[in-house]
Design goal:
Largest sheet of chain A: 8 strands, mixed
CATH architecture of the largest domain in chain A: 3-Layer(aba) Sandwich
Distance between the termini of chain A: 41 Å
Order of helices and strands of chain A: EHEHEEHEEEHEHHHHH
CATH superfamily of the largest domain in chain A: NAD(P)-binding Rossmann-like Domain
Shape of chain A: elongated
Oligomer: homodimer
Chain lengths: 264, 264
């Protein structure tokens, strides 16, 4: 724990982000006072894990905590913020795609606390290497968030709402879209009863290489060589799935475009 | 080294695969007799690295080696195989997308030795975890290739040519297409002068998670939630690049298709 004082924290939401973040705060020595979730089971499960209180009734959310962390689905966030009086407490959300403006006129002290990572409930996460992107409505709150973030991560960055929406977009493409490529690969392997684990080493090395160097320099394969023989062969093999076939075509054309235009 | 005897090996080609594979054979105790490349500089560079002989003249390729490993671009491979007399030696190629048939009627003893990985010259590779996919024209040659593969890798698999072309297709999608997603992310970050290294931890965790579990189960993000608000917001942000915008749309629709159809 840094020089930061021990904070009392209430979690609004008990999904993947809340689960990992609350555990990290707990381990860093902060006091998670309560977990709220609209779903009783989710609230109780996370609260039990943290050995703390829970509620699924907005009227019973504790008042006067140092920090309120809202980790709700994007489409519920705004409505929820408008329904609660946070008094003088500092309230933050953890959403990449929502601006700080969601709090304007609805809270006194507010900000954003966005951990740039993909979270799954059952998988352990080490926050130390995860960038925490913070933004606050004034410099005092910024210091509080910076210290809180530094308690759990070695990578704390000030990112404004305009930058953050592009960062979130980039993260969706780098994470969710890459993962979809893995999914399509697994479907292709299933056609020949080949196990997905054959690709494990390749997938890891690709990610390591791109992040150690730069992906544009690291690109290999038939499209970057503009090897139309192999591309045509692959399109033929994909006749079993018009959707994967179309996607193969679109992505290959885009690789050729990017690397032939020399735009980077 | 396994019970395999020390083999004499000639490399035909001096590209990324030949560079890494020849070094691995060298370290495993085999005798790389010569490197051939059509480009003098490439032949000399790799040969110097292995402290062995080189040539860029097909007429000077040494005869009578135990094994010839052909690592040439797919479009030169067939022509090259037809131009050389391999006598009784065992000749293999390392191409994922080319069948064993390329050797039929042109060699007595032949096979395929396909390491399933993405190779870059300047990056160290540990072969131990790389699947080596082997195929041979008879069981005697299969044993030789199995032993040779086991000298450098703990994952040796017999894969026939039909399976291998699907495996290669899956590898292109899992590796090259994922890497293209990273490239597009880097271009988006550049729009706001954000460094690509912000995504390093996310990219690695995504690859680890998908390969530890299964990518279809590991999927997260707006598309798998069918969150049209975020998808629309992202499409708006991408107005600066019609090509990335189209790709975002196609991949998001395909994620929705895959996860809503429950086809896996």
């Amino acid at each position: 724990m840094t020089t930061n004082k021990r904070l009392t924290i209430v979690f609004i939401g008990a999904g993947n982000v809340a689960t990992h973040l609350s555990a990290a705060f707990f381990i860093a020595g902060h006091n998670v006072l309560q977990v709220f979730s609209r779903t009783k089971e989710s609230a109780k499960q996370l609260a039990d894990h943290l050995n703390t209180a829970w509620t699924n009734d907005t009227a019973k959310i504790l008042v006067g905590a140092d920090v309120y962390v809202i980790s709700l689905p994007d489409n519920c966030l705004s409505e929820f913020v408008g329904a609660i009086d946070f008094g003088n407490s500092l309230v933050v959300h953890t959403a990449g795609s929502i601006g700080i403006k969601v709090f304007m006129g609805r809270a006194e002290n507010y900000g954003v606390f966005y951990p740039l990572q993909t979270f799954s409930k059952l998988r352990q996460i080490d926050f130390k290497n995860i960038p925490i992107c913070i933004e606050a409505n004034n410099s005092g709150n910024e210091i509080i968030l910076k210290n809180l973030a530094a308690d759990i991560s070695d990578h704390v960055i000030k990112i404004n709402s305009d930058q953050r929406q592009y960062l979130h977009l980039a993260a969706v493409i780098a994470c969710n879209f890459s993962n979809h490529m893995y999914s399509l690969s697994s479907i292709i392997l299933e056609q020949k009863n080949l196990p997905f684990r054959l690709l494990k080493s390749l997938i890891r090395e690709t990610a390591m290489k791109a992040s150690d160097y730069h992906p544009v320099e690291a690109q290999t394969g038939p499209a970057v060589r503009n090897d139309q023989n192999v591309i045509k062969k692959h399109l033929d093999l994909l006749s079993f799935s018009p959707e994967i076939r179309q996607l193969y075509d679109v992505v290959s054309q885009d690789i050729i475009r990017l690397h032939q235009s020399g735009s980077t």
